[in-house]
Heme chaperone HemW
Amino acid sequence: MPSVLPLGDPVPADGGFPPSVLQELPTRADKPLGLYVHIPFCSVRCGYCDFNTYTASDLGPGASRQSYPDTLIAELEFAASVLEASGAPARQLSTVFFGGGTPTLLPAEELARILGTAQRLFGFVPGAEITTEANPDTVTEHSAEVLAQAGFTRVSLGMQSAVPSVLATLDRTHNPQNVPAAHDAARAAGLQTSVDLIYGTPGESLQDWRSSLEAAIALQPDHISAYSLIVEDGTAMAAKIRRGELPDIDPDDQADKYLLTDELLQQAGYHWYEVSNFSTARATRSQHNLNYWLDSDWWGAGPGAHSHVAGLRWWNVKHPAAYAQRLHADTSPGHGREILDAEAKVLEHLMLRLRIAEGLDIAEYNGLPARTASGTAAISAADLQNLVREGLIEQEPARPSSSAPEGRAVLTLKGRLLADAVTRRLLG
């Protein structure tokens, strides 16, 4: 089952923000505001999955797929009232992302209704990016047309692998032959396309992974995500590995597969813009995910969904029944919340900026008030030179008139494989 939520501080029934956040909000008027919509339903629970998802038999009384859209809409209305009560300048949504679970297990018309409510309550900035994740078996020409007409701009297909034996190990039930059909349906409707892949599955050979990459590239999607498999405690796959039914994850194998990923995708015209994400152009990057990496604000709607506004992070109750009960009582579905302290802000700034192709602005980082408050050391020229010598980062040269380290630290290919280690080195 999904992992346990952190406790945090209690969320008030009205969802109101603490005074420090109310003071900060006016300064974030130019920050993008995103909306994440969690659809927690799956037809089958995959053995590797640690997300907050449920099959029909898991739901129990008080929750159903049929009633869920109305419950989500109730949270969107609640969110609009909380943001209005904060007194902050109104912001339209720059991105909306329907994730799961499998959002497309709901009828496309219901996804359209939820999106229409978000547009009515918040409005969309011109050119807003609006994405839904989808299982390839659930996308048809009709559903893709409904989504496009409703305002969706992008579909992210959960392909994971093109090799049947690998899909079986992952407990993925979709038919690999349906991936091209789903992709073509989305394209015909005028939607941008993204394909999600997972590498490092127990028993997956390097040739298996090459086959999956080549199959994804052959579709010519706008965007490809390639994630290394992480086996979380409490999952069915973790239990199988513990019992010796599956081999354990091999970090060296995963590194080889990432190197192959970068090689084949670059040859095909895809460029990395985040360690696990590649796109054909700047315009086809996932703006919603970039908002996470660039310290923007987002409201997460749905059971277990996480939100972030002006340094305040909160998360909803996990189970759809408890979530529905809270909203039917017109109270916040929030389970807990926390205000990021100076140390957490510095760590996240460094870690997240390093993961993107633009890299870490060194002067900006050294000038962070939170860095000084946390007692974190500034990055020195010697720190950077050592990492450059080791082939872990590239660094733009400082201006001739400046003796302080400047420019941007950008991970090399080797550095992307060791991103966490580079972060620890720079923290000092």
